[in-house]
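Student:
Attend to each token:
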Amino acid sequence: MKIIPSLFVVAALILPVSAQNPGPTPAPPATTPAATAARQAEALYHQGSLAEKAGDPVTAEKSYTAALKADPTHANARYALGQLKLTSNTIAAKGREAKFATIIIPAFNLDAATLQEAIDALGVLIEKQSKNAVAPNFVIQDPQKKLSEVKISIKLKSMPAKAVLQYLLEQSGAKARYDEHAIVIMPNATLK
């Protein structure tokens, strides 16, 4: 009977030590090629999304295509690529328009100028302030000469070029469309 209590004491001493040190930790699961491809596809999809938001549909398309090459089952990249094909012109136009918001015009003063004179002056200031990085092409489409009679008087300081253009358009009763190679200015439908 003496043997049973001593085995019990030995077992009681061994159990707490083994509970504190359960042995070697298991290795993390190995990364599978499919998981790596999925992560790469997700990163490329994210790049495409950022490019799209920045107004760069060409880079967005390349990123979405690369994401699908890495993981052909990436549903978001497939959907975004399809949508991009439908909206790439609009996205590019927004990107061109956003560029104008980054250029600050220190002062813009006109007194009884025509719209053509105002647009020419704005174009010169945009080139100067952007250090010739942006050279806008303005085209006035006004076959009925509705805008040629309008006179613009304006005094602005420290404004983004986009805002200056918007004020010019409002004063002259015109609107703008940001095409690939030019900003096209035309009369509003309500202008008489």
